[in-house]
């Protein structure tokens, strides 16, 4: 029997799969990629506010993202489960959506990093302040206006209207 056969090593089969298994941070960002040095050069020297403005103008928020962002802006200091309920979701639905928002724009929000081993909390901190003692989330004060302007005016989701 070979050393890398599934019977000898059950994990050996995983290494033969044609795709990569990983956490949600492995979702490919829209082009241009954060890994493209030419794309990163244009935003690397920008302030956080300028990067957020560029990120939301290049990748406008879709309906689900707008729902999550509105909940954050309209309920400062709420916990993750409370924000999920405001959106009509359960448990950590709001936090998951916010992580996806930041990951879709990570090539602009984090042009020089974070690395692939960064936790989702680090990625989320690009636009959100989190208080670990009270478990409350707030939009970064300097970014609230930028994010509010990125939302489509007048469009409300049925669940939040």
Describe this structure in words.
The longest helix has 12 residues, at 63-74. The chain is built from nine helices and three strands, in the order H-H-H-H-E-H-H-H-H-E-E-H. The chain has a three-stranded antiparallel beta sheet with strand order 1-3-2. With 161 residues, it is mainly alpha-helical. The N and C termini lie far apart (63 Å). Helix 4 (63-74) crosses helix 5.
Q: What are the salient characteristics of this protein?
A:
161 residues, mainly alpha, 6% strand, globular
The overall pLDDT average reads 76
Main sheet summary: 3 strands, antiparallel
Helical content stands at 40-55%
Q: What is the SS-derived class?
A: mainly alpha
- Spatial separation of the terminal alpha carbons: 63 Å
Strand content is 5-15%
Low-confidence stretches: 11-40, 155-161
Radius of gyration: 19 Å
* Tally of separate helices: 9
Order of helices and strands: HHHHEHHHHEEH
Shape: globular
Number of strands: 3
Instruction: Describe the strand arrangement of the main beta sheet, using strand numbers.
Output: 1-3-2
């Amino acid at each position: 029997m070979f050393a890398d056969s599934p019977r000898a090593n059950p994990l050996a089969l995983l290494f033969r799969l044609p795709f990569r298994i990983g956490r949600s941070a492995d979702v490919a960002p829209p082009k241009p990629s954060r890994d493209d040095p030419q794309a990163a050069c244009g935003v690397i020297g920008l302030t956080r506010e300028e990067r957020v403005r560029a990120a939301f103008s290049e990748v406008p928020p879709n309906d689900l993202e707008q729902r999550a962002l509105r909940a954050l802006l309209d309920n400062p200091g709420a916990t993750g489960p409370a924000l999920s309920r405001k959106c009509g979701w359960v448990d950590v639905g709001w936090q998951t959506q916010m992580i996806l928002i930041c990951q879709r724009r990570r090539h602009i929000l984090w042009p020089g990093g974070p690395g692939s081993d960064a936790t989702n909390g680090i990625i989320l901190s690009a636009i959100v302040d989190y208080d670990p003692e009270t478990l409350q989330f707030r939009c970064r004060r300097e970014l609230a206006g930028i994010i509010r302007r990125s939302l489509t005016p007048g469009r409300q989701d049925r669940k939040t209207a």
